[in-house]
Design brief:
Length: 253
């Protein structure tokens, strides 16, 4: 039987911890994104940069939002789990009447709520600086949820299998950051040489970023096969992470 009370308790705890450490979890990453926008606004005013016949800042703003959400979705569960392992409080979760799968989904749900909070605040601030508008709220929420689930699964995977900050930062520096920067966040695939386009054509995260950016345009083109490819990739990531939690008896004390 599902222990909803324990799940709600973990979600409430994670949200309370997120807001209590708002200087690091909210203000710091949002400030970095604001600096990105201000720098690119200055460059655009000097050089009149356009991408796909659109303002450069308007093009990268959705990418900045989803990049920040992805990074925080990875950091929040991985940092929390490793920190609890090091101070020994994670044993209390394991002794509680809640399964490891329920712990995983509690972390994922809390990450989804936090990710939406970060995205909405970012969008509100960006709307004060540039002319940006969401035209498709349904797909905006859908692709944002997909990003949060994937990177939260990665964070939960790292947090449950490893116990050192070096490993957490290694995954962040050598996987999360490169994936964000090399998935069309700051550029269009049309400007890549043909020899390098395959990097994005087989990258499901590129399509997520691209479709998420389309939510800010008045015309949204839904591609069934690309979205099926994305969905399969996300489901595999979720199943794999759930399997690690379910069969982690030799890893978790």
């Amino acid at each position: 039987m599902i222990n909803f009370r324990a799940i709600f308790a973990i979600i409430a705890y994670r949200l309370r911890e997120f807001f209590s450490e708002y200087q690091y979890s909210l203000l710091a990453p949002i400030t970095v994104n604001i600096l990105f926008v201000l720098v690119f606004l200055t460059l655009e005013n000097y050089y009149s940069i356009l991408i796909d016949s659109k303002s450069f800042v308007y093009f990268i703003a959705p990418g900045l939002i989803i990049m920040l959400v992805a990074q925080e979705s990875y950091d929040i569960p991985s940092v929390a789990l490793i920190n609890m392992k090091q101070i020994g409080s994670f044993d209390d979760w394991l002794l509680a009447p809640i399964s490891r799968i329920e712990i995983l989904f509690s972390l994922l749900i809390s990450s989804i709520l936090i990710g939406f909070i970060i995205a909405i605040i970012n969008f509100f601030i960006f709307s004060l600086l540039i002319d940006i508008q969401i035209y498709n709220y349904l797909f905006f929420s859908y692709y944002l949820t997909i990003v949060i689930i994937f990177f939260s699964c990665l964070g939960c995977f790292v947090g449950i299998l490893f116990s050192t900050w070096d490993t957490q930062s290694t995954f962040s520096n050598f996987f999360v950051t490169p994936v964000n920067f090399l998935s069309g966040t700051f550029f269009s695939i049309n400007y890549l040489p043909d020899n390098f386009k395959f990097i994005l054509q087989y990258n499901p995260y590129y399509y997520v970023v691209s479709f998420f950016r389309d939510c800010f345009n008045d015309e949204f083109n839904f591609n069934f096969y690309s979205n099926l490819y994305i969905l399969i990739f996300i489901v595999i990531s979720l199943i794999f992470t759930a399997f690690i939690y379910f069969k982690g008896y030799k890893i978790i004390k």
